[in-house]
Amino acid sequence: MPRDDVVRGAVLLCASEFVFALMNALIKQASVTLPTATILAERHWLAVIALLPLAIRRGYLDFSAVNLRFHFARSLIGLAAMWTSFYAVGHLPLAEAAVLKMTSPLFVPLIAAFWLGEAVGARIVWAVIIGFCGVLLILRPGSMSFTPVALIAVTSGALAALARVIIRRMSAGIAAGEIVFYYSVIGAIVTTPPALTTGVVPNTYEFGIVAILSLLGTGGQMLMTRAYACAPASVVGPFGYTGVAFAALLGWIAWQETPAPATFSGAALIVLAGWLVMRPRP
After folding, report:
1. Full 3-state SS string of 163-223
2. pLDDT in tens, 124-164
3. Domain EamA, which positions (predicted)?
4. What is the per-residue pLDDT for 1?
């Protein structure tokens, strides 16, 4: 593998994590005045409008050729993951929300083992144990600093892992653009009723924030896709944990958030566990 490809992949993945950290900072800012449902509804409708020309051109609207069962399953799970993620980001320190969401790789082998019957070796078992020890350090259940919202962030990681396994199980022959389009359509349909019941209409400033965070989300996804096209996930994947550092920096700059020492210790264990999970099998 050319060294330049590895360097390029690492730089692109770090860039994507910085963009995602900016997106989460805007989500946190928007959550001050907007309900999560309103933010999600606007984000999904903007995505539908942007992707509709592509869907028409590539025939994604031909329902006879579309696996609607897959799209509904993937979209509803993915939407639940995004909803819990947005809520957690809006109510937790940025760094803590970022760390807990990064538990997603720990859930993937567990779900794949129970659902797909995939073998799980001793290394993966130890990785999961180490990772969840890190989660307990951050959550500190039973202490005065414990907040139930942190459990929502962990739930987001688990749901994101389930969405990934569904894609791996059911997406053979389905274009990535089709998956994103139907996810946006179903997300827009599902989030609109609860958004309307809030009675909150975004003003121009709030609409602009959500529009920008939507663009950042798309840009971050594109950078991440290009990063993994340059080099294997086992090589560049660990650079994805730079997102925690970016989140901590933005949280400190914008909200004077300082992560507790236990958060740093827990993050180190989760990063170690994630690295063990991503390592290729010997």
Report:
1. HHHHHHHHCCCCCHHHHHHHHHHHHHHHHHHHHHHCCCCCCHHHHHHHHHHHHHHHHHHHH
2. 889 889 999 999 988 887 666 778 899 999 999 999 889 88
3. 8-139, 150-278
4. 54
Q: pLDDT at position 231, please?
A: 77
Helix (H) or strand (E) segment spanning residue 137: helix 122-139
Number of H helices, E strands in the chain: 12, 0
Which segments within the chain are labelled E, that is strand?
none
Please identify every stretch of the chain with a pLDDT value under 70, giving residue numbers as ranges.
Answer: 1-3, 142-144, 171-172, 234, 280-282
According to the model, what pLDDT value does residue 201 have? 93
Domain ranges of the chain: 3-278
3-state secondary structure of 62: coil
Three-state DSSP class for 67? coil
Token reading at 144: 């005065």
The upper half-sphere exposure of residue 137, i.e. CA atoms within 13 Å in the direction of its Cβ, equals 19
CA distances to 15, 86, 130, 202, 217 from 221, in Å: 11, 16, 28, 25, 6
Tokens of 132: 């969840």
Measured distance CA(22)–CA(4) in Å, rounded: 27
Cβ neighbour number for residue 167 with a 10 Å cutoff: 18
pLDDT at 172: 67
- The upper half-sphere exposure of residue 49, i.e. CA atoms within 13 Å in the direction of its Cβ, equals 9
